[in-house]
Amino acid sequence: MEIKCPQCGAAIKMGQDEIFASCGFCEASIYVNKAVIYFHYWIKPTFEMEDAHLNLRRWMAGDQTIDGLQKNAVTKDESFTYFPVWRFVVKIAGEEQIFVEPAIPTSITEFRNLDLPAGLLSFAKPGKKEDEKLPDVEIDVNSAREWLREREIDPRLVSSISLVHIPVYRFTYEYENCLYTAVVEAATGNVIANVYPNRRDTPFIIVTLLSAFLFFCVGMSCPNFSIRFLAMLIAAVPAGFAAFYVQKKY
């Protein structure tokens, strides 16, 4: 089987069952999907497992997660892998934008929000030791194109498509007898998670409504400005304690 390199046009010979190839002239790496040719990239990891774990713990201590998660979460499993995604370059209003869609099934849809600038990409070389760690593509590019349409992006505006293998550390941790999964991207250290113990909005809403009702009642029952001002100051004390309690607990 012979194909042409999409970058320099040189002829590349491939075996019948091969899906990855490398151009001997320009060194481009190519992914062949049913006679359709795309560039094949991978991103080199810059974080070790220990550093990724520290990033995860810092994320746990942030504003998005519930208070105490960093101290009480117990790591149950950790592993390193490469996660394949389709990288679409789309021209919208004359500007190029990058969109990402997973190339294997995953429950972590936040992979769509990954930033994959060209500076991070390196051509994946067939036969290298990384090959054995690269999972097979299970979601074809046509399905990924349809997902773009669901995101209200016209697939006809796509100017280029690439297959990119991203290095990730996957962590499973337990919190209050529930298991959660988080992924740390091994090139930038960004934490990716869909479901996690986050701060609950309902207690904050309840405290806000009760405080507003309390101040309303104080305002209506105290016609004198000085007395009303003093009463509101007194009422602010329990409201403040309630807000502090909810903030610490939730």
Describe this structure in words.
With 250 residues, this protein is α+β, with helices and mostly antiparallel strands. The chain folds into 2 domains: 39-192, no CATH class; 201-249. The protein has helices at 49-60, 69-72, 141-150, 201-221, 225-249; strands at 2-4, 11-13, 20-22, 29-33, 36-43, 74-92, 95-102, 121-123, 158-175, 178-185, 191-192. The strands form 2 sheets. Strands 3, 4, 5, 6, 7, 8, 9, 10 and 11 form a 9-stranded mixed β-sheet that branches. Strands 1-2 form a two-stranded antiparallel sheet. Helix 4 runs antiparallel to helix 5 (225-249). It starts with a strand and ends with a helix.
Question: Keywords for this structure?
Answer:
250 residues, alpha+beta, 2 domains, nine-stranded mixed sheet, 5 helices, 32% strand
